[in-house]
Specification:
single chain; about 170 residues; mainly alpha; 2 domains; about 0% strand; transmembrane; receptor; transducer
Length: about 170
């Protein structure tokens, strides 16, 4: 979903003058969910059948799909978005929304991707750090988004703490 959001934001900024289909985002997200469910179902069924060789191939394929398609698309679209927003016109743009998306993806890459890398390396019996470290990073990633929303939503010109409801409301209004 982060990949879909990144690409959708990038396309909407780059081609703001072109009218895109109204339900494009929902369709893309539904397709990504379907792909995700299909991949997880196939990996789970192969691994539950205790077919070690096919299970390992399915897991490696899943991680390669993540590393070679989804993560690079997310990074490239966010870099394009970031450059376009910084160098683009100075008309009113919902900058807080872009900051939230950028921070969410940045923290995803820092905190969640190591677990995928660790799992991928495990398929080759290679470990660099203990599982507890990458699991802790993944847990941090799972809980950091509300803090991002709060901090970005509560910062205007001066960062001041306000109610959580108002902070969320500001972020999601844009």
């Amino acid at each position: 979903l982060l990949t879909a959001i990144s690409i959708e934001r990038c396309v909407s900024i780059l081609y703001s003058s072109i009218r895109r289909p109204q339900h494009l985002s929902a369709v893309v997200c539904a397709l990504l969910w379907a792909l995700s469910i299909a991949v997880i179902a196939s990996v789970t069924s192969l691994c539950l059948l205790h077919d070690h060789e096919h299970c390992q191939i399915a897991l490696i394929s899943m991680y390669v799909l993540n590393f070679l398609i989804f993560a690079p698309l997310m990074v490239i679209s966010n870099v394009i978005l970031f450059v376009k927003v910084l160098c683009g016109s100075r008309r009113h743009q919902p900058k807080r929304l872009y900051i939230v998306i950028f921070l969410t993806i940045l923290f995803f890459l820092i905190f969640a991707l190591p677990l995928s890398v660790w799992n991928f390396l495990q398929q080759f019996s290679y470990t660099v750090v203990p599982y507890q470290v990458v699991f802790l990073l993944a847990c941090i990633n799972s809980s950091i988004n509300p803090f991002i929303y709060f901090l970005v939503g509560s910062c205007r010109r001066h960062c001041s703490l306000m109610s959580l409801r108002v902070a969320f409301q500001r972020v999601f209004e844009e």
